[in-house]
Design goal:
Length: 554
């Protein structure tokens, strides 16, 4: 059932608006508004930052419309002011644009508060809603027992008056609410008189302090879809059992009915996506805010070095299906798209994470000190850079061993190595400090070495180096599928390893935030926005995007 293009998905979803029992009259009005075009919406609730699951939802909604000559609304589903704020609204707008989408219009559920209120009065007049005075717990109990509320048969006049009083602020929070009058014996619990309005004495980030009653998702969403003439209301599978009440309400109000189609939520291995969990990690400072490079929020991914095209190509690849909300996609698939693009676009350089200092004892004898290295080894026509040799060079601690070990390719007292693109060197002396730690390794450049070498090491000349901070990010969780209640137990204590004493070539000095490189033999890196700040003593900060190859240990 998977489909990755908007065209084929539309075949699956259907496009005949008569299928949802719209009258000719409603269809005529609808067509006048849309010109017969496909209309979708992306409806985030501004209660957190957008994540890669939302990227999937956007990809679906925006491409289905665009590939069929239609358009898409960005609609803030902002009916619950308790958890929503302007920071989240701004973040959502930014992420939608960053991922390359241009909404037909940006709307807010709260723009319709007056209309929604008048429609609620209409619903009451049609005897299809009533003011409920039972508590939340009592409502739940009656739902379970399929019992009518004692307030269910209030007269239309009484309900209109009480609803007016709700709006005027004459009740306290939770004292009463407005419920749709559907069917308390219905087999679908969501049809057992869902709540339409609740009282909240909280100002609204968009609507200000005009209201103390706020409509629920169940009441609002379908009406918004209808008023915006959405042709295809695409949502995730957890809303499947709310489709009946969606249609019930539109029918009760004689409003135009869109086609509703549900698809699977995206879950990725080794991470969590639900906003509730992300919020907890942010609040508890387990991560460095919503933008932490370990989070798969859109801004976290951006800071991690992901580009919109990497994310969108991943979304194209996974497509949409109705396989279920419990399916997990391997995060390695997302990394694959990062790697493909980085291999193509990220110039090569060398970076040393844990430096060991070498001294080339016969440095003066070396002829070739300006060493040319390709920016892209597989395509030399794309240019080169010069690595200037100096008497002292850094190699990585991982590439040096004081004793020879079988299978080790690095520098040892017995093993020669090549400083990649440059000279071959042989160890001549290990110099130690008073504590016996290696302080300096003296090596000799060899000109006439004939045997095959094992190690071609990355290196940086001390004289042409600069200090850098390197953040080695790994998965945030050690468990592949994080679904448990005690999910925080599976946090990876080593999800960030910081290399504070790294060395990189000085020619990277003018790099800009978000520039990406391959540190040959190590990984792909991106320049972090905290580069050159006091927090890091003015140093450049590099974030590891992905490793060069998919790691085997999992
Ligand atoms: P969360 O549980 O993370 O709060 P949500 O569904 O409440 O998610 P919204 O901001 O209300 O998040 O969602 C906006 C749109 O994005 C909805 O249509 C929703 O179905 C979709 N969406 C959210 N998370 C995912 C996901 N993981 N995969 C696919 N679509 C998603
Ligand atoms: Mg939601
Ligand atoms: Mg939510």
């Amino acid at each position: 059932q998977a489909a990755s293009t908007g065209k084929s998905i539309l075949e699956l979803v259907g496009r005949d608006l008569k299928s949802t029992q719209n009258s000719e009259e409603l269809l005529k009005k609808h067509r006048e508004a849309t010109g017969g075009r496909i209309v979708t919406r992306f409806p985030p609730e501004p209660n957190g930052y957008l994540h890669i699951g939302h990227a999937k939802a956007m990809r679906f909604n925006f491409t289905v419309a665009a590939e069929n000559g239609g358009y898409t609304y960005l609609r803030f589903d902002d009916t619950n002011p308790v958890k929503e704020n302007q920071e989240f609204i701004d973040n959502i707008k930014y992420c939608v644009e960053w991922l390359g989408y241009t909404p037909h219009d940006i709307t807010y559920a709260s723009n319709y508060f007056e209309e929604l209120y008048q429609l609620a009065r209409e619903l009451i007049k049609r005897d299809k809603a009533y003011v409920e005075h039972c508590s939340k717990a009592q409502i739940n109990e009656m739902r379970q027992k399929k019992q009518d509320s004692p307030y269910r048969n209030r007269t239309v006049e009484e309900n209109l008056k009480l609803f007016e009083h709700m709006r005027q602020g004459r009740f306290i929070e939770n004292e009463c609410c407005l419920r749709m009058k559907i069917d308390m014996t219905h087999e679908n619990p969501n049809m057992r008189d869902p709540v339409a309005y609740r009282i909240r004495y909280v100002p609204h980030p968009h609507a200000g302090s005009d209201w103390c009653i706020y409509p629920t998702y169940d009441y609002t969403h379908c009406i918004n879809d209808s008023l915006e003439n959405i042709t295809h209301s695409l949502c995730t599978l957890e809303f499947e059992n709310r489709r009946e009440s969606y249609y019930w309400l539109l029918e009760a109000l004689d409003l135009y009915r869109p086609i509703v189609w549900e698809y699977s939520r995206l879950n990725l291995t080794y991470t969590v996506l639900s906003k509730r969990k992300l919020e907890k990690l942010v609040k508890d400072k387990v991560v460095d805010g919503w933008e932490d490079p370990r989070l798969l929020t859109i801004l976290g991914l951006k800071r991690r070095g992901y580009t919109p095209s990497m994310i969108n190509e991943f979304c194209n690849e996974i497509g949409v299906s109705r396989n279920g909300n419990d399916n997990f996609t391997q995060v390695s698939l997302l990394e694959y798209f990062a790697r493909v693009e980085l291999d193509r676009e990220a110039p090569r350089t060398f970076g040393v994470l844990d430096p060991v200092l070498l001294e080339i004892v016969n440095y003066d004898e070396i002829q070739q000190k300006d060493i040319e290295a390709p920016l892209f080894p597989t395509d030399k026509s794309r240019g080169s850079q010069i690595y200037k040799l100096s008497k002292h060079v850094y190699i990585d601690r991982d590439d040096f061993s004081e004793t020879h070990v079988k299978g080790f390719f690095g520098l040892t007292p017995e093993q020669l190595v090549c400083l990649k693109y440059g000279p071959i060197v042989k160890l001549v002396e290990i110099v130690r400090n008073a504590n016996g730690e290696v302080q300096l390794v003296k090596v000799q450049a060899i000109h006439d070495h004939k045997e095959k070498l094992k190690g071609y090491l990355h290196w940086v000349s001390q004289e042409h180096s600069m200090d850098a901070v390197v953040n080695l990010y790994s998965y945030l969780f050690i468990k592949e599928r994080v679904v448990e209640d005690d999910w925080e137990k599976y946090l990876n204590p080593d999800s960030l390893v910081v290399k504070n004493n790294a060395k990189v070539w000085k020619n990277l000095e003018n790099s800009q935030v978000h520039d990406r490189f391959q540190f040959e033999r190590l990984a792909y890196f991106v320049i972090d926005k905290e580069s050159r700040t006091d927090k890091h003593n003015g140093k450049l900060v590099f974030n590891r995007v992905v490793e060069l190859k998919e790691s085997k240990e999992k």
